[in-house]
Automatic annotation (TrEMBL):
Residue ranges annotated for the Ketoreductase domain, each copy included: 8-190
SMART domains: PKS_KR
Protein name listed in UniProt: SDR family oxidoreductase
InterPro entries according to UniProt: KR_dom, NAD(P)-bd_dom_sf, SDR_fam
Lineage of origin: Bacteria, Bacillati, Actinomycetota, Actinomycetes, Kitasatosporales
Amino acid sequence: MEDRFSGKVVLITGGGSGLGRSAAVRVAAEGARLALVDVSEQGLADTAAAVEKAAPGTEVLRITADVSSEPDTRRYVSATVEAYGRIDGFFNNAGIEGKQNLTEDFGSDEFDRVVSINLRGVFLGLKYVLPVMKGQGSGSVVNTASVGGIRGVGNQSGYAAAKHGVVGLTRNSGVEYGQFGVSVKAIAPGAIMTPMVEASLKQIDADNWEKAGEAFVSVNPMKRFGRPEEVGNLVAFLLSEESGFINATVIPIDGGQSEQY
């Protein structure tokens, strides 16, 4: 395994499960020091254990925080800088699936909740991490958007609106901060088998969610779910110096799903 992250500090939100955990394990195996943020203390502990198994001795700072809270965001960024002195990579990843309903039936409070975490949380992360990277004259940010951020998805008004917003923030921030040696890009995952996707499938059919999953991936050219480690591999590349000239853009990782519409 390469040591692309030897001496580097990587901050990951949503680090307690799913894509955040997969990325943490991958960059740790390549030498990164980690700061992991999540609302779940248990999730953070489980990720730290997975990191220790994959890369024994990795430095892991665990921070319990709500990414939609500005004080919490200031705190997790400050704690990372205080512990390590810098932030080289930021996987701005925390998010929720939200409930599924037609737009006319989508609750206003639910809309606000989904947008607060999935969009405001990404904005706040950028707001407080980008100045750190600007001051260093270097850094790489990867925001988690979605296939639902580059095309329409039925019954998910809040999620689609938030993820389209993440795409806009990514392009805007990349244009603003490229001059300071900082690149900002987004990934647009399709159906990746994570706890969040499982929860979405259970909204479709709680008793036969596996069957709902089969129907969901039948429209994908590759006829399968993506694996979290496949996303972790992409995130590791995008956080590394090898991707330094990729900026202000969105990269699908969806098995070709977005080309089917």
